[in-house]
Write a structure and sequence with these properties.
CATH topology: Aspartate Aminotransferase, domain 2
Oligomer: single chain
Subunit structure: Homodimer.
Cofactor: pyridoxal 5'-phosphate
Number of domains: 1
Domain Aminotransferase class I/classII large: 1-177
Keywords: Aminotransferase, Pyridoxal phosphate, Transferase
Number of strands: 4
Pathway: Photosynthesis; C4 acid pathway
CATH architecture: 3-Layer(aba) Sandwich
Largest sheet: 4 strands, mixed
CATH class: Alpha Beta
């Protein structure tokens, strides 16, 4: 399962999608050997694999990747020199305490050098999913970890040519990253 906008964007940019499959019998978890095989097959066809996308928590499966899986995945990205794109937009939509959401960035930082200093990670979040469940509300962000400054500059240029985000999305995003605190006028008692 994947977000169709990813495959469409890859196609639009002239790239090649290298799919990997989740293991249904393991609560829709990742099998690093399956991923390793997908990357090796792509490279044998002359495809330069540059990045990997994970959707955690998964949609529509609802799986949350555990600490061991995330460590294994980050180690794989380190070994293979792959950037990791962590779509974590459903992190507030977890309803099973026994399988909590764990961010890829937290695990990356916990792993320490050299992995924590070298794996390139982009983490995504949005107001459109968990907090209000309002898919029509648009506002989001991504955090870049270990991304080269010249790449950040190019991303900033691309983002700067877009029209301004909608007002509601800006308000919701502000509330998401800086929620009302006790004593604030907007704080519910």
């Amino acid at each position: 399962p994947q977000y169709p906008l990813y495959s469409a964007t890859i196609s639009l940019c002239g790239g090649s999608l290298v799919p990997y499959f989740l293991e249904e019998t393991a609560n829709w978890g990742l099998d690093i050997n399956n991923i390793r095989q997908s990357v090796a097959q792509a490279r044998s066809r002359g495809i330069t694999v540059r990045a990997m996308v994970i959707i955690n928590p998964g949609n529509p499966t609802g799986q949350c990747l555990g600490e061991a899986s995330l460590k294994e995945l980050l180690h794989f990205c380190f070994q293979e020199n792959l950037a990791l794109l962590a779509d974590e937009v459903y992190q507030q939509n977890v309803y099973q305490d026994e399988r909590p959401f764990i961010s890829a960035r937290k695990i990356l930082m916990d792993m320490g050098p050299p992995i924590s200093k070298e794996v390139q990670l982009v983490s995504y979040h949005t107001v459109s999913k968990g907090y209000w469940g309002e898919c029509g509300q648009r506002g989001g962000y991504f955090e870049m970890t270990n991304i080269p400054p010249q790449t950040v500059d190019e991303i900033y240029k691309v983002a700067s040519i877009s029209l301004s985000p909608n007002v509601h999305g800006q308000i919701f995003l502000g509330l998401m990253v800086n929620p009302p605190q006790p004593g604030d006028i907007s704080y519910q008692k």
